[in-house]
Design a protein that fits this description.
This is DJ-1/PfpI family protein. Residues 222-234 have a biased composition (Basic and acidic residues). The chain crosses the membrane at residues 12-33. With 234 residues, the protein is of the alpha/beta class. It has one domain (3-193, 200-214): Rossmann fold (3-Layer(aba) Sandwich). Helix content is 35%, strand content 17%. The chain is built from nine helices and eleven strands. It has a seven-stranded mixed β-sheet with strand order 5-2-1-6-7-11-10, sandwiched between helices. Strands 3-4 form a two-stranded antiparallel ribbon. The radius of gyration is 17 Å and the shape is globular.
Length: 234
């Protein structure tokens, strides 16, 4: 039995990744959904190719399957990636895959500013959606209504505003796909009980200069000194 055959036997939740993705927006939800063990659902990370991809940290991601190998998943979910996601809106392979997969998917989701990719695929017109606050205006220009909530459901669409909110949304999804007890156990195991040491912050709370600084362009993924790839010798 091939790996591709095994993937068809499960209801797949496909996380579509691209260069510059934010690991927290991907790994947080995956950590929650690993508790789907024992159900007919399974997660898989997919990309245009299965080559190693840079993220916006020192971590790199290797998709387990290509878009072509998972053409019709149960769910397609796009994690955010800061400025890289804006560039990904013009990635024909990514946007085309999301649009095609969403046509038959029972769940379409995004974390952080991943909702911009859904918008680029024309999927959020007239819908309420959560997105990282720094990209709310851009989301609304694409025809969506920004929901000022950590996460929101609109029909089969599930969107979360940021990395931590993505964990919240996936806990709710785990409770739906499996059971509430499993979601509670997942939350307890992760010791997920946010209490930021500097208090709650948001675009309308705290030092307004912080929001300005966050909107200042940063080095592209894999280009900063801290996160550059090590040199390879011949």
């Amino acid at each position: 039995m091939t790996a591709r055959t095994r993937r068809r036997e499960k209801q797949l939740l496909a996380f579509a990744v691209y260069p510059g993705v934010t690991p927290l927006d991907l790994i947080g939800p995956l950590t929650v959904l690993r508790n789907l063990t024992g159900t007919r659902y399974r997660t898989v990370v997919v990309g245009d190719r299965t080559d190693r991809l840079p993220t916006d940290t020192a971590l790199q991601v290797v998709p387990a399957a290509s878009f072509a190998e998972v053409p019709a998943p149960f769910a397609v979910i796009v994690p955010g990636g800061g400025p890289a996601t804006v560039g990904a809106m013009a990635d024909e392979a990514l946007v085309g895959y999301v649009r095609t997969a969403a046509a038959t998917a029972q769940l379409v989701g995004a974390t952080g500013n991943g909702a911009l990719v859904l918008a680029a695929a024309g999927l959020l017109i007239g819908r309420r959606a959560a997105v990282h606050w720094a990209y709310a205006e851009q989301l609304e220009k694409a025809g969506a209504t920004w929901a000022r909530e950590p996460w929101v459901e609109d029909g089969r669409f599930l969107t979360a505003a940021g990395g931590a909110a993505g964990i919240d949304a996936m806990l709710a999804l785990l409770a739906r796909l499996k059971d509430r007890s499993s979601a509670l156990l997942a939350q307890l195991f992760m010791e997920y009980d946010p209490s930021p040491p500097l208090g709650p912050l948001g675009p309308d709370r705290g030092d307004p200069d912080l929001a300005v600084r966050l909107r200042t362009p940063r080095p592209r993924a894999g280009r900063s000194e801290d996160h550059a790839e090590p040199r390879r010798t011949p």
